[in-house]
Amino acid sequence: MSHIHPSLIVKSSKKRGRGVFALNGIEANTLVEVSPILILNSHETKIIHNTILHDYYFIWGHQQNQSAIGLGYISIYNHSPNANCYHECDFDDNTISIYSKRFIAAEEELYINYMKGEEKPLWFKPI
User: Fold this and answer.
1) Distances (CA, A) of 32 to 25, 26, 45, 118
2) Domains in the chain, CATH or no CATH each
3) pLDDT at 106 over 90
4) Neighbour order of strands in the sheet with 17-22
5) Could you tell me the CA-to-CA distances from 3 to 91, 116, 125 in Å, in that order?
6) b vs e for 4-37, b when ≥16 Cβ sit within 10 Å of the residue's Cβ?
7) 91, 103 in Cβ contact below 8 A?
8) Confidence band, pLDDT 50/70/90 cuts, at residue 123
9) pLDDT digits (tens, 9 = 90+) for 7-31
10) What is the number of alpha carbons within 13 Å of residue 96 lying toward its C-beta?
């Protein structure tokens, strides 16, 4: 299954390249996207660190030794420790879903927390 909320658009994000934005308001607890993914095995995951894909992948699998590139808009959501959305990885269906945590106003950028609340350092300096 794949799904992209009709109110989403990708456009330039200040100091962040591109990002996902709401064209219209999105209610809290709304499923905004379900995206299929491309899975990279552990060998391919080591290789992507030397490519542009390094900034767009998710750690993947029950063993956390694979990676995934989201199709749809999944790999375009920017990071915020105070994200207005959260993501769920479904290792059985090979999808990533994005849900709104609160009301998102028209023109507002949608963010996820890349670390899912874990206390690990990021691989980049947040803006």
Assistant:
1) 12, 8, 27, 23
2) 3-112 (2.170.270.10)
3) yes
4) 8-13, 17-22, 109-112, 78-79
5) 17, 22, 31
6) ebebbeeeebeeeeebbbbeeebeeebebbbbeb
7) no
8) very low
9) 999 999 987 789 999 999 999 999 9
10) 25
